[in-house]
């Protein structure tokens, strides 16, 4: 990988009284930040102004204001099935290992339990991954390697975010595990899951459990199912037609 490809540089502007002096400007990167004209993107006021932002709108805004339009347009969406992490960037690669495109997914079950700021920082985390993929600057041995950390630290410093290399929320992840099974054998093991999947021999640990304990897993807890609202229909006398006239029998 060439030095030019890995280098991240700011766009610097030189001003002078003379109109004949040349300006120096390097190619823009996410390290540049335009002057602030509105509250910080993690200001608590956004919890009131826009508590549940549109993900695609957020992406488009950050793409222009933080990544300066360098990051290609891509799809950003919520995932209801993602319950172990707050987000992921799915890369599509060609035969040469170059990035063809990315899709960013954020966990709706986790982030709807968290402040708006966590949605912003999780999105920016995944946008860094997408940016590095688009420029073929991903660290092959570590997805959060030197190139990732460099951009992450600059964005945090410039806009006041607290993007980290991990964004798992343990309390929220545990809170989503509402399907519980308890072993009726000596071990009394409790298995908690987000999905209604009974422990079975398809899992690696299950065989050892059969040999050392031999108990059966009994469902002991599950999420409450909201009661369905009864639909009320306007009763029409069977002996009357549409206009109130009695039907002939």
From TrEMBL:
One of its GO terms (molecular function) is polyubiquitin modification-dependent protein binding. Its main location: nucleus. Residues 53-220 form the SprT-like domain. It is found in: Nucleus. Residues 1-41, 216-249 are annotated as: Disordered. GO terms for biological process: DNA damage response. Residues 1-16 have a biased composition (Polar residues). One of its GO terms (cellular component) is nucleus. Keywords: Nucleus. This is SprT-like domain-containing protein. It comes from Xenopus laevis (African clawed frog).
């Amino acid at each position: 990988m060439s030095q030019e490809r890995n280098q991240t540089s700011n766009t610097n502007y030189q001003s002078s009284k003379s109109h004949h002096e040349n300006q120096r400007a390097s190619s823009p990167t996410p390290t540049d930040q335009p002057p602030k004209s509105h509250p910080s993107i993690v200001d608590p006021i956004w919890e009131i102004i826009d508590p549940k932002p549109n993900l695609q709108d957020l992406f488009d805004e950050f793409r222009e204001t933080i990544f300066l339009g360098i990051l290609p347009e891509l799809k950003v969406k919520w995932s209801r099935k993602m319950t172990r992490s707050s987000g992921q960037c799915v890369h599509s690669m060609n035969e040469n290992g170059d990035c063809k495109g990315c899709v960013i997914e954020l966990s709706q079950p986790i982030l709807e339990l968290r402040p708006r700021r966590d949605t912003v920082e999780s999105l920016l985390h995944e946008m860094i991954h997408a940016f590095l993929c688009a420029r073929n600057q991903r660290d092959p041995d570590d997805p959060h390697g030197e190139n990732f950390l460099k951009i992450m630290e600059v964005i945090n410093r410039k806009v006041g975010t607290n993007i980290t290399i991990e964004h798992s929320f343990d309390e929220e992840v545990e809170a989503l595990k509402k399907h519980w099974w308890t072993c009726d054998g000596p071990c009394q093991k409790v298995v908690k899951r987000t999905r209604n999947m009974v422990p079975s021999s398809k899992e690696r640990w299950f065989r050892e459990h059969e040999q050392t304990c031999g108990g059966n897993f009994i469902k002991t807890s599950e999420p409450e199912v909201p009661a369905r609202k009864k639909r009320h229909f306007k009763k029409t006398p069977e002996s009357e037609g549409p206009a109130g006239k009695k039907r002939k029998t």
